[in-house]
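ok so i was messing around last nite and threw this chain in just to see what happens. nothing serious, just curious
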Amino acid sequence: MRIQYRLLLGLIGIILISILPFTVFSVKLVSESIDLWAQKDIENTLEEAIRYAPSTEHYDKAKEALKIYRQLQAIKSPLKQQIINYSILLSLIVFFISIFLGWAFIIWIVKPLRALTKATRDVSSGNLLTNLEAQGSPLEIKRLVKAFNQMTNSLKTNQDELRDVIRKRTWQEASMVLSHGIKKPSTPTRILVERIKERYPDKTPDISEILDEASQFIIEEMDKLTDEFSQVVSNNLTQTSHDIVLLLEEILEGCATAYPQINLKLKFGENIPRVLIDWKAMNMALSSIIQYRIECLDKNGDMNVGCYAAGNDVVIEISDAGKTSYKDSEGNTKLDICQDIINTHHGSVELQGNACKIVLPVL
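result:
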C-alpha cells in the first residue's frame, strides 16, 4: 500500500477517535437537559398552583404555564431527535472537511517525496542530469531536495572528470602508438631509396639526385608530421596571436577544393579581435569538425560558418542542413579530440543537434 493511503487511514482513525466521543457527549448532554424540564413533578406543581391560586391573576398565569409546559412535553421527542440528527450531521461535516484538508496536506508532503523516489531510480540507472524543484514544499523537504541536487551535481562532476581522464589517457596512449607507426616507415623508406640509387646509378644522369631529393623530402615530411602529431598529443602547444578569420578561410578553401559539391558559406562580423592559438592544432580541430559535418551531409549540401566577436570572446558557429546530430542517443560524440584541443586553448564547445558553437577567448 502506498504511503499516502497509509497516512490517510491513520488520519481517518485519528479523526474518528476525536469526533465520536464529542458527538456522543453532545447528544447525551442535550438529552439529559431535555429530560430535566420534562419531569412529572413540574406538571404536578403547576396543577397545584392552579388549584390553590390566591387570585384570578395567579390562576391565569399558572394555567398558561401549564399549557406551555404540556406543549413542550408534546414536542420533546421530535426536538430531541432533531438535535441528535443535527449533531450527527455536524460531526459528518467536520469529518469530511478534516479528511479533505488532511488529504491535501498528505499530497503536499508525499508529492515531492515521490518525485525524489523517481529521481533516485533515474540516478541509479545512470541518469545524472536529474534535477528536482522544491518550490512550495515543506522546509525539511526543501533541504532534502537541495542535498539530493548537490549529490547528483557532485556525481556528474566526478563522472565528467573521470571520463576526461580516461579519454585523455586513452587518446595519448593510442596517439603514441600511432605516432610510432607514422615514424616507423621512415627507416625502410630510406633504405629502399638507397638501394634504388645503388642499382640505377647510370640509367639517367640525374636519377641519383632526383631519388636523393625525393627520399629526403619523404623523410622530412614524415618527421614533421610525427612531430606535429606528438606536439598536439602532449599538449605542448605554442600559442601565439592569430587572425581566426584567416584560419577559417584557409580551412574552407581546402574543403571547397576537396568537396566541390558542398556549398560552403563564411560570414564574419566586423572588428573581430585576434586570438591566442596554436595555428596547427586549431587548424586540425576546426578542420576535423567541418569535415565530420561534410561526411554527415554525404558530401552534398549547404554549410554555414559564422565568426563574430562577443564581449571578450570570439564565437565560431558551424551549422548545416544535415539530419545527423553531433551526439548519439547516449550523448556521446566523435569529436572528443577536437574538444580537447579547444579546451586546451581555454575555449569551449557547445554541440546542439546539427549546430556547433565554439567560443575562444580574445587576447
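not much to say yet. The chain has a mean pLDDT of 77.
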